[in-house]
Amino acid sequence: MRVSRMFSVIAVCAAVATLAAAVPPAAGLGRPARLSASPGGAPAASGPASPALPAARPTLVYPHVTLPGGAWAKVYSDGIAEVHRAGGGGAEIQHLPLRGPDGGTSPAGDGAAGLPAKGELIGDLIRGHGAPFAAQQVVVIYRPGVTAAGTIAPPARELRGPLRAAPGYTSAPGLNRLLARLGVDRAQQLFSGVGRGRLLGLHATAEHRLGRSLPDFSAAFVLHVTGASVAAAVARLRADPDVAYAAPNWTVTTTHTPAIAVPASVLHLAEQQSRADATRTGAQAATAVPGNYTLISSAQSLLNRPGADVVPAYAALATHGQLPGQGEIITNVSLGTLDDASAAASASDPCNFFAKNYGPTTEIINSQRYLDWPSMPLIPTFTSNASGVLDPTGESCGDDPTLAEVGLDFSMMAPLPHQLQRAGAGGAGLTDLLGIAPGAGYRLVVPSAAGGAVTAVDAAFLAAATQNPPGTTC
Predict the structure, then answer these.
(1) What angle do CA 281, 287, 292 make, to 5 degrees?
(2) Calpha distance 17→15 (Å, rounded)
């Protein structure tokens, strides 16, 4: 998730808009839009007010698409397809890429995208596989006018056998009976840690940005379903007139590639050469072009021309006593394991297995958890719960236990010029990295619950957007 400046709020709008667009959240976030503060403190889109927008509820475009082997599919306008196997053997959810006016495809679409031609659609359904989602979880938004408590967890006995009166999930009796038949034993409102005015401001900004109506994600709920499959629950909820949106709680994973071991002889030679180079450039001023080993040896060849070509930028900013990125705060929202030595030492710690087998990923200093990596500044980390509330010492484990993707992100951006690196944490050889924006401040936010559920990622984006001081979210 890497985007540009001004995304501290708009990244959230796009991330949460994936809820309303019924897509897996791997979709790109698009370009940022500038925001201004409304009198009530909620962000509002600059520019003219949006005109009346069409209804946001997805429509059923193809009630019955015949597929080989007796299978068939029901396809909605937002790309969600219910694929039914022959002989009533169950159903799965697939998500079809939407086609834009330029012929390109996107899981999210841009407001003008639509389903492909029916022939292509059938081909996609034949080739496709069910998208991954959290077990027994459905994300739902009720139609305007239907109210619901923040969290309701009816006793199991109320969901077994003949129902005299359905639990009061919502203000709509018919919808309550459906939720009871689906075995919903918990309905929890999302983003409850963020003020409703703030969420409504984000919603207005997202609608202005996309030029179309979106369901009110300030009233989104996660349902835990025990009486039906996720696919069946989504189908029945989408057919209910009191439901504006229903979809699985999609999941995402980190972009992780297998590690490639660097031979010990190569590491040793690089460290020797790095020390020799550091001796020669030790008198270099802090504002000069950096002498980091990976820059001068082209180990980070991406920094060279015709790649990022960072040396001219460093040289130009050096005349002003500045570094690239200076004055910015960049918040990386990702998935990953945050644990420390205390987790490795305690068999009762939930992250004990990961800390013992992979090694601690962070350390806590003065009530704040940090990434402590060579060549980089200390980077504060936070976990976000489902309500969008941050914890500066929060622990999370199970996703990416070596922080491979997080490490890739920060190794591209954060490493300092060699002479500015922290005492005792300087890089040597191939760890003497140089970032493209070492003057910026950095933060990391990950969901407190592992698994990559889109609702948890959306909550982490919201939490990052409301941090003070604000930053750029990527």
Answers:
(1) 45
(2) 5
Q: Which residue has tokens 């570094």?
A: 323
- Report the C-alpha gap between 359 and 257 in whole angstroms: 19
Structure tokens at 280: 């020669």
Helices (H) and strands (E) in the chain, counts: 12, 20
pLDDT of residue 95: 83
CB burial string 277-292: b at 16+ within 10 A, e below: bbeebeeeeebebbbb
Which of 137 and 58 is assigned the larger pLDDT?
A: 137
The CA distances from residue 153 to 92, 168, 169, 234, 292, in Å, are: 27, 10, 9, 20, 57
What CA–CA distance (Å, rounded) separates 134 from 250? 6
Tell me the per-residue pLDDT of 42-53, one tens digit each, with 9 for 90 and over.
333 333 344 445
pLDDT digits (tens, 9 = 90+) for 9-34: 333 333 433 333 333 333 333 322 22
d(CA 346, CA 33): 47
Structure tokens at 437: 């924006």
> For the packed helices 7-21 and 196-210, what is the interaxial angle rounded to 10 degrees?
80
User: Measured between alpha carbons, how far is residue 90 from residues 41, 207, 374 in Å?
Assistant: 48, 36, 52
pLDDT at 327 over 50: yes
pLDDT per residue over 91-148, tens digit each? 788 888 787 666 555 555 444 468 888 877 887 787 766 568 898 999 999 999 999 9
Cβ–Cβ < 8 Å for 249, 455: yes
Rounded CA-CA distance 80/94 in Å is 6
154-158, 230-234, 328-332, 458-462: which has the minimum mean pLDDT?
Answer: 154-158
- Report CA torsion sign: 293, 297, 300, 305: positive
In the DSSP assignment, the letter for residue 371 is: E
The Cα–Cα gap between 298 and 302 comes to 8
Longest dimension (CA), the chain: 84
Instruction: State the Rg of the chain over Cα.
Output: 25
pLDDT in tens, 242-283: 999 999 999 988 876 666 778 888 888 888 887 776 665 554
Sequence-ordered list of residues with C-beta below 8 angstroms from that of 225, at least 6 positions apart, any chain:
136, 137, 138, 182, 183, 184, 233
C-alpha–C-alpha distance, residues 268 and 429, integer Å: 8
- List alpha helices for 346-453, DSSP H: 352-358, 404-413
CA-CA distances (angstroms) from residue 316 to 79, 222, 309?
48, 51, 12
- Comparing CA positions, the residue from 336, 333, 329, 332 lying closest to residue 253 is 336
Helix (H, G, I), strand (E, B), or coil: what is residue 176? helix
Alpha-carbon distance 61 to 57, whole Å?
A: 12
